[in-house]
Write a structure and sequence with these properties.
The complex is a heterodimer of chains A (117) and B (112).
Chain A (H helix, E strand, L loop, with lengths): L2 E5 L3 E2 L5 E8 L8 E6 L6 E6 L6 E3 L7 E6 L4 E6 L8 E7 L7 E2 L3 E5 L2
Chain B lengths: L3 E4 L2 E4 L5 E7 L12 E6 L6 E5 L3 E2 L7 E6 L2 E6 L8 E7 L6 E2 L3 E5 L1
Parallel strand pairs in B: 2-11
Antiparallel strand pairs in B: 1-3, 3-8, 4-5, 4-9, 5-6, 7-8, 9-10, 9-11
The chains are: A mainly beta (117), B mainly beta (112).
Chain lengths: 117, 112
């Protein structure tokens, strides 16, 4: 059974940094593209970032480009999202999702990031 | 960026009646490999999103056959043949053809 377990979400001050993790199991992690999608409170879904299976290609939404970095450790079946210079508008539940071309067949349960002073 | 426009945004439906959600893209979603990467997701209250349909019309395993997807190019539709109580939630389309990936605004389906 595919499982994706996000962690790392906390309350952080504006301008602060945070690293989210998504631990994967139940599939050959190194063969799959992985993504982060976020959902601000009571709002819709927003794609954030995607990383290729080998980690050599990364893609970002304009809203996070230059501040967030996606990476992965295929030896540990984990994908990360390093978030710097956080803003109030980054407050959201962050989901990791498995699959390429938006074919997100599996999602984690999400981790809440709150940016507030 | 490709803009995904869903309609309606609110969809009150009587149990047992059909429902239809439209999703239109500002550019063609046909990729260079010939596939059209238009996917539909359901998000029930308090839950993570769940994929229902991928590449326009392919229903996921475990998704009831009352759900169907259709369309081509820039115009796509999700249909529910007979709405049941468990279908309450928000439905999103997502295009995976162009960067950045973009979702529709979401359609909130409720029981009338």
């Amino acid at each position: 059974e595919v499982q994706l377990l996000e962690s790392g979400g906390v309350l952080v001050q504006p301008g602060g940094s945070l690293r989210l993790s998504c631990a994967a199991s139940g599939f050959t992690f190194s063969s799959y593209v992985m993504s982060w999608v976020r959902q601000p409170p009571a709002k819709g879904l927003e794609w954030v970032s995607t990383i290729s299976s080998g980690g050599d290609n990364t893609y970002y939404a304009d809203s996070v480009k230059g501040r967030f970095t996606i990476s992965r450790d295929n030896s540990k079946n984990t994908v990360f999202l390093q978030m710097n210079s956080l803003r109030a508008e980054d407050t959201a539940v962050y989901y990791c999702a498995k699959g390429a071309y938006g074919n997100y067949a599996h999602w984690g349960q999400g981790t809440l990031v709150t940016v507030s002073s | 960026d490709v803009v995904m426009t869903q309609s309606p945004l609110s969809l009150p439906v009587t149990l047992g009646q059909p429902a239809s959600i439209s999703c239109r893209s500002s550019q063609s979603l046909v990729y260079s490999d010939g596939n059209t990467y238009l996917n539909w997701f359901q998000q029930r209250p308090g839950q993570s999103p769940r994929r229902l349909i991928y590449k326009v019309s392919n229903r996921d395993s475990g998704v009831p056959d009352r759900f169907s997807g259709s369309g081509s190019g820039t115009d796509f539709t999700l249909k529910i043949s007979r709405v049941e109580a468990e279908d309450v939630g928000v439905y999103y389309c997502l295009q995976g053809t162009h960067w950045p990936r973009t979702f529709g605004q979401g359609t909130n389906l409720e029981i009338k």
